[in-house]
Fold:
Amino acid sequence: MQYRIMEAAAIIGRSQRLVVLTGAGMSKESGVPTFRDEDDGLWTKYDPAELATPEAFQRDPRLVWEWYTYRREIVRQAAPNPGHYALVELEDLLPQVVVITQNVDDLHQRAGSSDVIPLHGAIMRSRCTADCRGGPTAFSSEAPVKDGLPRCPYCGALARPDVVWFGENLPAEALLRAMIVTQEADVMLVVGTSGVVQPVAALPSLAFRAGATLIEVNPNASAITSLAALWLDGPAGEILPQLVAAIRARRGGQ
Ligand code: BV8
Structure:
């Protein structure tokens, strides 16, 4: 592995336009369960893809809110891990580090990454189901509650978590920018994603076809691994700090 880390450090250390694509595995070492791991929590009997949908919310808003309240508590207790901080350190070493994330926690932002494109929304934010102010009306998670369900503070309509559910479009501007920086990237570092959820899962092949070098950090193989020039098969919280240290070493310890 050490040799592959050195190789990856040489490639990333030369990058002028680095894009980092992260998934749930990035936050695993912060204690935030991934989507498809065998979680031993209350939710093993529910399939997230069944709960993270507008239909599920329509059918049983109370159950969906229970799930999101449970997950918000986990995110509240979580802290960025050394992997998140390593990505922040890369910003001192490279001209560009853009983080495209599928994660709905705010750990990249809390760690201090300065350019994050969240494509699946933010779990700690809520939004009005009636878009009462003429467009997505987002507000903090401390919404007023009526009949046990969070309400929009402006119009009283039912509130929902401000995340992108399966079957919903991604925020158009964020997705457009993600596609642009992906096509311009010279290196894409893909961290902690199984690479199954579209359209984000198409970004690595978009980068690859545009000539970028892909490097993957994931303890398991994923749908991306076949595109990667290097697969660093270990946990993000361990591998990413080693990558940064190797880049610094190549620069005489700067
Ligand atoms: C859309 C927010 C247009 C909510 C999420 C059939 C074929 C192809 C596509 C589709 C299809 N049917 C439907 C679709 C489209 C669908 C889709 O892709 N479905 C999949 C399941 C096939 N996509 C959509 O619906 C998207 N919208 O397409 O709009 C449209 C419009 C109308 C009708 C149709 C289409 C919206 C997708 C967004 C869904 N929302 N999250 C919430 O969080 O509550 S997705 C959810 O999955 C999370 O955001 C999560 O981040 C994301 C992706 O999963 P991963 O991040 O990869 O996480 P996962 O658990 O899978 O993997 C973790 C990885 O980490 C593993 O590889 C593991 O090995 C690794 N790991 C573990 N530990 C570590 C680690 N890595 C590093 N370090 C560690 N320590």
